[in-house]
Amino acid sequence: METKLAAAYIRVSTEDQAEYSPDAQLSEIRKYADAHGYRLPQAFVFVDEGISGKHTGKRPGFQQMIGLAKTKPKPFEAILLWKFSRFARNREDSIVYKSMLRRQLGIDVISISEPLGDDKTSILMEAIIEAMDEYYSINLAEEVKRGMTEKARRGGLQNSPPFGYRAEGNLLRPIPQEAALVRELFRRFAGGQGLFPLAKWLNSLGVTTHRGGRFENRTVEYILRNPVYLGKLRWNPTGRTGRDFDSADLILADAGHEAIVSQELWDAVQARMLQVKAQHKYHGRPLSEHRDWVSGLVRCVNCGSTLVFAKPHYWKCNGYVRGRCKTAQHISDEKLKGMILTRMGYDAAGGPALTYTIVYPHTGGLDEEALIRAQQKQLTARLGRLREAYLAGVEDLEGYKTAKKAMDAELAALDARLAKLTHLPNQEAETPEAEPFRCAVLLADPEQPLELKKAAAHAIMDRCTLDKEANRLEIYYRLYLPE
C-alpha cells in the first residue's frame, strides 16, 4: 500500500469531556492513519485547545494548517479529523474551506469516526452532519446565554475582577491599595481633571492593570463608568459592551460586594462625564498634548483609526501600526495638510452640502478670541498643576523651571496674539460655508501659533476620513447652535 502524507487537526472546546482530549483524538487518528496508508508527521499535527469551532478566524492552529495547505507542492494529501464538528461548527466556514481544500488544492478532509464515500448519498450525509453540528453549537450557545443572563439578574459574578477588587469564591473583595487609587480617580475627575492626565498620573506611580498593562484614556474611562464600584454588577447578554455604557441591553443588578465609592461621588462623576462628552471628544488627548493641528483629526477610511505621526515627516494609520488594519494610508505631512486645506476651500466654494456630525449648544463657530482665551485658561491651569507637583515633590526644581519657562513663553505668545487680533476675511458672514474658509485661512498662515491652529482645527472639524488609494479626503464639520 502506498504511503501518503496526512495532517491531523484537533480541536478541544471547553464543553468537551475528558475522553475527547487532544491525546485521545490524536491516538484514534494515528490508528486510522496506520490502517489506511497515511503517514502522520508530528509537524503536521495542529491543535486548538479551549477554543470554540464557531469562527475559524480565532483558531491559530486551524489558520496555520490552512496556510501550510496552500503551499506548493502540496505538503499532504488529506486532513484527518476525529469528527467533522472539530473542523467547523459553522456551515459557511465548513463549505468554504472544504471546497478550497478539495477542489482547488486536491486535499481531502476525512472524519475518522464518520466514514463517508464519494457518492451522492455521502455528500448528503456530510451536509446533514454539518447542519446538526451548527444546530448543536447554536443551541448550546443559547442555553449558556440563558443561564448567564439569569445569573446576571441575581447579581452573580461572571467576569474577571476589575481593578480595585479580587475574587474570593463568587464574591468580589476590595484590594486596599487599588481601592484607594480608584477613589482618588473618581475624586480627581469630579474635581476637573481629564482622562489623559489621570492615565499619566497612574502610570507615573508605576501602577499597572490586572493584565499588567499601562493605563490609557479608555482604561480610566471604563473605571469611572463601571458601576461595580457602587456594589453593582453589569453584564451585556448581547455580547461585549465596548464603549456603549448606556446600552438598553445592559443588565445591572445589586451584588453582595463592598462598594468603593459613594453614590454622591458616582453621581458627580457621571454628571461631569455627560457634560464633557457633550462638549469635547473627551476620550482623546488634550489639544496641548498634540504634536500638530492634524493630530486626532484624520481617520483611516477602512478601519476608523486615527493617523499618527511617523518620522521623519509622514502620517500612518494607527490600526496598521498596531497590526489591526491592512492599509497603511502612508502619506507625507505636506500632502496631508494640503489635501485638508484644498478640501476646505472646495467645501467653502460651493461643493456638496457640508456634512455636520455634532450638534450641541455653543456661543458661536470659529471665534478666534474665544479660542485664544480658552488656550490661556488651559495653560494657566497647567501651570497651577505643575506648581502643585513641584510642591508635592513629584517634580524636581530643574524640571519645574524648564516646564514653567516653556508655558510662560506660550502664554506670552497668546497674549501678543490677543493684543493685535485682527478679523479674518469674511469673518462676519453668517453662512456655515464661511467657517471652512476662515479656518483654512488661519491654518495656512505660517504666522499663526500652533496652539491657535490646534484649537481652530478641532473647533470646526470633528474628523476627516482619508482614502489615499482613491485620493479622497472628506471632512465632517461640527455644527454649532446658538444657546
Keywords:
483 residues, alpha/beta, Rossmann fold, Hect, E3 ligase catalytic domain fold, 3 domains, 5-stranded parallel beta sheet, 4-stranded mixed beta sheet, 16 strands, 16% strand
SSE order and pairing:
Blueprint: E1 4-12, H1 22-35, E2 38-39, E3 45-49, H2 60-69, E4 78-81, H3 84-87, H4 91-104, E5 108-111, H5 120-153, E6 165-168, E7 171-174, H6 176-190, H7 195-204, H8 217-224, E8 232-235, E9 251-254, H9 263-279, E10 298-300, E11 307-310, E12 314-317, H10 318-321, E13 331-332, H11 333-348, E14 355-361, H12 368-391, H13 397-419, H14 434-444, H15 450-460, E15 461-467, E16 472-481
Parallel strand pairs: 1-2, 1-3, 1-4, 4-5, 10-15, 14-16
Antiparallel strand pairs: 6-7, 8-9, 11-12, 12-13, 15-16
Overview of the molecule:
This protein has 483 residues and is of the alpha/beta class. A hairpin with a 2-residue loop joins strand 6 and strand 7 (171-174). Helices cover 45% and strands 16% of the residues. The longest helix is centred in the N-terminal third of the chain and has 34 residues, at 120-153. Helix 7 packs across helix 8, helix 12 (368-391) packs antiparallel against helix 13 and helix 12 (368-391) packs across helix 15 (450-460). It has 3 domains: 4-146, Rossmann fold (3-Layer(aba) Sandwich), CATH 3.40.50; 165-279, Putative Large Serine Recombinase, Chain B, Domain 2 (Hect, E3 ligase catalytic domain fold, Alpha-Beta Complex); 287-481, no CATH class.
